[in-house]
Amino acid sequence: MSEENELGHGWRGSAEIWIEAAYKLLIAGGVEAVKILPLAKTLRLSRTSFYWHFADREALLAALIRRWEEKNTGNLIRQTELAAPSINAAALNLIDCWITPELFDSQLDRAMRDWARTDAALRAAFAGADAARLAAIRAMYLRHGFDAEEADVRANAVYLTQVGYIDLDTRETLETRLRRVPTYVEIFTGQKVSPTDLAGFLRRHAGRES
């Protein structure tokens, strides 16, 4: 079977399949595992086909960074900005990120933070991402009537709790996470979750696999 028939992209593949393969190597082995030859072997494409899409390995790594910025930071900020009738509904919109891999990729965030420990430029980018995420969560609290000091402390509590989950690679079933959500929200907002807000949140995640 030809590469064109196997992959459906012609002999050069596509930029997206190179990025996806690089993503998988990053998750499995860190940034040092993301090299052109192993990628080419994985995709059963020639090394020269890589250069059709990327100038060099650094360009591929830059594409991974953009993917992380757009998916994780971009989606987190958008979730905080969704219209919500209460701070609890707003907090539940944000918690959607921690339960929905399509919105926020925790494995990618952990791998990127590990990479940033050895790369000064990425470390600076991660500091900027953390600041942007915290600012968005803080703004969410401010829109719902919290004063600046309380909004800042609560935003830190929300975000640093989730960073801890990711950094420690905490594993819990979806059932356990959903059961804990109302208590987490009460801790984060100081208000009990209404049955209406909780029901809407649970509907969004009905049928989702652990």
What this model shows, in words?
It is a single chain. The chain has 210 residues and is mostly helical. It folds into 2 domains: 1-54, Arc Repressor Mutant, subunit A, CATH 1.10.10.60; 65-204. The protein is 73% helix and 0% strand. The chain is built from 11 helices and no strands. It has helices at residues 3-7, 15-29, 36-43, 47-53, 57-80, 87-99, 106-116, 120-143, 148-167, 174-189, 195-204. The longest helix is centred in the N-terminal third of the chain and has 24 residues, at 57-80. The radius of gyration is 20 Å and the shape is elongated. Mean pLDDT is 92; it is low at 1-9.
For the structure shown, list the relevant keywords.
single chain, 210 residues, mainly alpha, Arc Repressor Mutant, subunit A, 2 domains, 11 helices, 73% helix, 0% strand
Number of DSSP-assigned strands:
0
Helix content bin = over 70%
Unreliable runs:
1-9
Number of domains: 2
Structure summary:
By secondary structure, the protein is an all-alpha fold.
Topology, element by element:
Elements: H1 3-7, H2 15-29, H3 36-43, H4 47-53, H5 57-80, H6 87-99, H7 106-116, H8 120-143, H9 148-167, H10 174-189, H11 195-204
Helix pairs in contact: 2-3, 2-5, 5-6, 5-8, 6-10, 6-11, 7-8, 8-9
